[in-house]
Specification:
Blueprint lengths: L2 E5 L10 H9 L2 E4 L6 H4 L7 E4 L5 H13 L4 E5 L10 H10 L3 E4 L4 H9 L12 E4 L14 H4 L5 E5 L5 H12 L4 E6 L7 E6 H11 L5 E5 L24
Parallel strand pairs: 1-4, 1-5, 2-3, 2-4, 6-7
Antiparallel strand pairs: 7-10, 8-9, 8-10
Helix pairs in contact: 3-4, 7-8
Length: 249
Amino acid sequence: MTVYFIGAGPGAADLITVRGARLLAASPVCLYAGSLVPEELLAECPPDARLIDTANLDIEQITAELVRAHADGHDVARLHSGDPSVFSAVNEQMKRLDDAGIPYEVVPGVPAFAAAAAALKRELTVPTVGQTVILTRIAQRATAMPEGEDLATLGRSGALIVLHLAARYVDRVVEELTPHYGADCPTAVVAMASRPDEIILRGPLDSIAEQVKAAGVIRTAVIMVGRTLGAEQFRDSHLYAVGRDRGGF
């Protein structure tokens, strides 16, 4: 058997990859984060599949379910919201499977920041304006940030910064980034990206905290701060430039 860590995407059920959907439909056991993964996806599971909501399980209980499925010879679809490569808590699960000698594969998904950019109809990298995107979060009670990865330090780059799990702390975000980006820096917040109840907020950095509070956004949101969000005048990319020599490689 194999455990498949599948990126379920940001929320819309049809944003799962074809590979992810195929594996989900073939796995007799499915572990999913009930608070984050859309119920519509579970309809893709086999009719008699064992469905396990992990929202209230700890890592040892989750591991026990994976070990049990392995002992029964069953493939497992382990659904994670977004993409497993960032802020997914997949590492500790893979480590335990390594220790138990249980095989697994990782199937990428659409990350929340990509769904947010799509909702904003924005390319996050713009020629001559910004070519760097920083994905990060802020220190909370759950997990401290490593030294040198605080907002004050990261903000010095001036790069587009994308904050996950930070809507509750929007005042801190504004306070720490304003000295580096300026109060007028284009900012956006996208909550529940790709879902029917999607919320999009835009404005200068000094207005965004008030908007977030007025909209009641406290979770399942990304905050984006950077000049590329408001870029209107920029050079065309070299890839499709009219004067580009296309005779070589």
